Amino acid sequence: MTSSVSLISRAVFPWTAALAALALLAAPCAAEKRIRRAGIVAPAPLPEGSVLVAGFLGAWERWDNPKRSVRKLALRLREGAGPDVFVETAGNHSRATIRKFIHEALDRNRDGKLDEAEARSVGIILYGQSFGGAAAVRLARELKKWNVPVCLTVQVDSIGRGDHLIPSNVKRAVNFYQRDPGPVRGQPRIRAEDASKTEILANIRHFYVLRDVDMSGYPRAARGIMTLSHWKMDNDPMVWAEVEGFIRAEIVRWQAERITGGIR
Fold first, then answer.
1. What CATH fold (topology level) applies to the domain 33-260?
2. Does an H or E element contain 188, and which?
3. Residue 151, CA atoms < 13 Å, CB-side half-sphere
4. Is 53 helix (H, G, I), strand (E, B) or coil?
5. Residue 47 carries which DSSP code?
6. Angle at 182 (CA atoms; ends 181, 184), nearest 5 degrees
7. From CA 137, how far away is CA 127, in angstroms rounded?
8. Coil, helix or strand for 240?
9. Each residue's pLDDT tens digit, 26-59
10. Count of CB atoms situated within 10 Å of the CB of 46
């Protein structure tokens, strides 16, 4: 797997060294920032017909950092989404922990395998920012091996190899990105592995040059004239309101299809 440091270090802009240094400083503390199974509050197995929303943070962020938009959105969804909607967050390096939980949550008869009914018993929505966006797509690709469908993937300024190609077990996908000058720019266009099975809802571009965004939740080194558009996007309330809208709409869609028997 290509690390966040190696991807960033290919950039030719003068801020590269500082970004790489920040990533290296964070790496020794990574073990403390990964979510453990005990940190997942959703039950296993999950109630049949329920929804699981999993969000992935970027860089080496702590999985429950309340200052990051992935976590902020998760907490809002938990408050108002209803008793059959379960929301978790994780760092992008903890994809395996979430993957194992999903298997545990779907395996109702505890035989270690997922039959077709089990695989389709829960609506799954995945979202993430930066390397977390790529983690959401990779997890969807891993779930495909178990024939587990994913209702929706949402990427916010996604960075990672292969994050442009949405696997065929994903029903709908949407991508938010920026391409402003700077060393870190998100995936500009996602496409479906199989257009007959996956609908690309949109590739939505945002612009941040000369635009102010409240960066008070970020480290001091990330503020001021050196603030990257990539970081601004993570703090942009407009972007996250859009992300929330897509996720809430998908939850309603899943619940309506369960009532009408329209699950495919």
1. Rossmann fold (3.40.50)
2. none
3. 25
4. strand
5. P
6. 125
7. 8
8. helix
9. 544 444 488 998 899 999 999 999 999 999 999 8
10. 22
> What letter does residue 225 receive in the DSSP assignment?
G
Give me 92's structure tokens.
Answer: 């992008």
Residue that the structure tokens 């993570």 belong to: 234
Two tokens, residue 18: 């500082």
Give the Å distances, CA to CA, from 256 to 91, 151, 262: 31, 13, 8
What is the pairing mode between strands 165-166 and 191-192?
parallel
* Residue of 251, 263, 211, 256 whose CA lies nearest to 235: 211
pLDDT of residue 104: 97
Q: Which residues contact 239 (CB under 8 A, 6 or more apart)?
A: 69, 156, 176, 206, 233
Residue 175 near residue 203, CB atoms below 8 Å: yes
- Amino acid 6 reads S
Mean pLDDT of the chain: 88
Domain locations in the chain? 33-260
- Asked whether the whole model's pTM tops 0.90, one would answer no
Reported as half-sphere exposure (CB side, CA atoms, 13 A), residue 263 has a value of 20
Would you state the pLDDT for residue 226? 63
The DSSP letter of residue 84 is T
pLDDT tens-digit readout, 130-151? 999 999 999 999 999 999 999 9
**CA 69/CA 57 separation, integer angstroms:** 8
Collapsing DSSP to helix, strand or coil, 176 comes out as strand
Q: What is the 3-state secondary structure (H, E, C) of 87-150?
A: EEEEEHHHHHHHHHHHHHHHCCCCCCCCCHHHHCCCEEEEEEECHHHHHHHHHHHHHHCCCCCE
Q: Is the pLDDT of residue 14 over 50?
A: no
Tokens read off for 235 = 């703090």
